[in-house]
Predict the 3D structure of the following.
Amino acid sequence: MQKANDTREILVLYYSHHGSVRDLARHIARGIEQIPGIAARLRTVPRVSAVCEATAAAIPDEGAPYAETRDLEECVGLAMGSPTRFGNMAAPLKYFLDSTSGLWLKGALAGKPAAVFTSTTTMHGGQESTLLSMMLPLLHHGMLILGIPYTEAALSTTREGGTPYGASHVSGDNGDTAASEHEKLLAVALGRRLAETAKKLAP
């Protein structure tokens, strides 16, 4: 579908191993696109390998295309998601962020709004520490971090994922537990809040 020339885009950047972070990204994209004049640009990152000869195809077999640093530069905001790995973001996303020093040197992301999201196997699998650690490189880039305020009723009633630091999902042992209604509502709300803020801030 062709977008109008004045449509601005927010980058929804994620790494997903079993698909739960990818699904959360889609709910965030839905929230973004509830705001007129704002569209979501979904991008992922390839896996990393300890095997030196291992390489990923230039185009993923399915899902979103791989991100390039220009995606960050071209978009007016960022939603970034990763599964938790011992309370931190997964290596593939960190590897991509480590390639953005050129953007940092010229302040390309300074002043843009950003939000984070994650998925864990268990309720106490490190959701909040992962979300907080994902904010650190974005703060170094000068981005403006948004969370989910308690004016979102689902934040006070959720018994699954969802935090004031960002959207989250408890995926279960095999990563096959679908997002709950509260988790979906909060992901959509985060996307919508990010888009509303980006629309106000974008020149």
Remarks:
- Strands lie at 8-14, 38-44, 77-85, 88-89, 113-120, 144-145, 167-170.
- The helical segments are 20-32, 69-74, 91-97, 101-105, 127-140, 153-157, 181-201.
- The chain has a mean pLDDT of 91.
- The chain is about 35% helix and 20% strand.
